[in-house]
Design brief:
2 copies of one chain form a homodimer.
Chain A: H1 2-21, H2 33-40, H3 54-81, H4 86-100, H5 102-112, H6 117-141, H7 146-167, H8 172-196
Chain A binds a DNA duplex (30 and 30 nucleotides) through helix 1.
Amino acid sequence: MRRQQQKLKTRRAIIDAAFNLLDEQRSLSSVSLREVARAAGIAPTSFYRHFKDIDELGLTLVDEAGLALRQLMRQARSRIDAGGGVISTSVNTFMEFVVSNSNEFRLLLREHSGTSPAFRAAVLREIQHFIEELTDYTANHTGLNRDLAGLQAEAMVKLVFSAGAEAIDANAAQRKVHAQRLNQQLRFIARGAAFYAGK
Amino acid sequence: MRRQQQKLKTRRAIIDAAFNLLDEQRSLSSVSLREVARAAGIAPTSFYRHFKDIDELGLTLVDEAGLALRQLMRQARSRIDAGGGVISTSVNTFMEFVVSNSNEFRLLLREHSGTSPAFRAAVLREIQHFIEELTDYTANHTGLNRDLAGLQAEAMVKLVFSAGAEAIDANAAQRKVHAQRLNQQLRFIARGAAFYAGK
DNA sequence: GAGTTGGGCGTACAGTTGTGCGCTAATTTA
DNA sequence: TAAATTAGCGCACAACTGTACGCCCAACTC
């Protein structure tokens, strides 16, 4: 059993090293296999014992970041149940995620419009997941029909991601302003959707 | 005088070559100086007679793409004056731009969340320009105060860019669906903003 | 205890990169 | 016409890349 544990540990080291390399100046496609190996403390050729490609590593990273995002959503929902507005609670939770998992969010942000079709597709799946859960929530907690709920959820998620993109490079004060603007804009959408639902 | 003309011509060749390299698989940071030179039909070292860096070339490309976008906006405004809804006319014009100038749009899209702070700043300036003009237009053509108009314009521009990002890889039929969804979502925002203005 | 498996390493190689240097040839200036 | 400028080129070099190959040795199987 010792062997598998060691292998998992090295794999983790590679993944963590890759995430740490993804600061504001680097993207997946600009990180080389050798660099990752160096940061992980292994020989370049050892990399192949764990991943076929840099691309395979990249997909793993996207999956992990997406998972972290989904966990965030659950957390946000539980807070809403405990009281507080749906919108402001979600916005605050999201902003916290952007700050505390900045490299994970940056990865999603960058590869969303990056050069690799496979990465783009992977990120899109995560975002779609995000939208679907919000659609369900909206349809259940308001009288909105699914079409309108879907339109609203999509618009909201897009705005949230855009705001996250701006917030990631901002300081706490600026982030607060962004969060407030985003709050108001999400209310526009909610109000508009309610209007078109005939309410 | 012959010499300057020739120099401009070569410079144009470099810029055009760079744009042509920026298809769905390449980004500015992944295009090498030698590649650009090769595509432009010059020796690698000749590149330096025109640009100090690849980065200097990149900024030039962002500026050109932004200019094309601004021209698009003027065109859209003139069409609106000639009749047709503000939103649907703008959406249609934008979608046309995404299709016919796909590499320019892709450049803005990618570098907006890219690895170079300088490029990100340059794209952000263009988007800000976009938002400001829409804010002015909105404030003038509706009773909205500037704060609300600004919030609305920002939200709309972000949604438009997001939709453009999806449309760029889609076929005509899918694009039509995206355009219709975007239309409805922009109406949500307009409606919501009007509501908060007390109308 | 003997044999197999497999993670990790070092070496090696061909390919690509950015860029410094000095030359040519043609245009521009004097 | 003679001199100066300059776009473009070829060569060279060191740095870096991905990855093939084969060895080692600790962990596992039997």
